[in-house]
Amino acid sequence: MGPGSGTLEDMVTSPSQILFLGDVDMAEELVPWLASTAGGDVEVVCATRADQRASHVLPKAPIRYLGAVDRAETSALLRSLASQEIFVITCYWPWLLSEEDLTHIGTRSLNFHPAPLPRDRGWYPHVHQIRTGSPAGVTLHRLEPEPDTGAIWAQRSVSLPFPLTAGEARTILQREIVSLFRDQWWQIFRGEISTQEQVGDGSYHSKSSVESLDFLGRDDVMTVEECVRAIAARNIGGRSFLKLAGDAGPRFVHIAFSEFGTGSDLTSEADRGGVPSGTLPTEGGSE
Question: 167-181: per-residue pLDDT in tens?
């Protein structure tokens, strides 16, 4: 566990706690807001992903920051919270919580998912939404052992206009899911909102199903729009994951969209999802 303002052993058993397990960027945006809007009897505790850079914001926030944790430490943390009054939030957390993990927290849990569940469970739903033009949205739902199957706290439809890249779609969906969370969180926490079970079989995308979209054959037959969607769905922050069969071997295909034809959008902040210039993001995300 990385450096922070607390450890597993010295967590305070306040009257009520919120545990935020999250992507660093999302945690830096949401955790200080949680702390500033919580009442005096609610403590906000946060841990971030061990596979990401250390946070400079969270150690200074009025919260108990546990630093970066890995999968095993996540389970240990949840065991240490057993029988306490805790509400667990997972936000783009890369590891599924096991059935044993979930027994320690009961039904007071919430996960962020950037898709209109039960459609597009699993990995990188925006990739499939761009490629197929299927409906997009964001969902806050209860955690279950099977990914993205929990009852829904709140949901919102989102428009992803054609054309746009995966980076631009990610930025739009993150903005919308943050807005939905801020609008609904304290009502959820206080028990003023009931969950609704997911209706229908839905769909699920594995990580390998996304990776299978990373090659474009020269003999593939598709419309212009289908071709643009196929390329844009695998472009994020100036980085392409899609290769085209070339005479000298596969070549990566990049695409960008701009209003004035300057081409600057290829490395624009919107396409990078807010990542500073000179930093190329990975796809990120989780199940």
Answer: 999 999 999 999 999
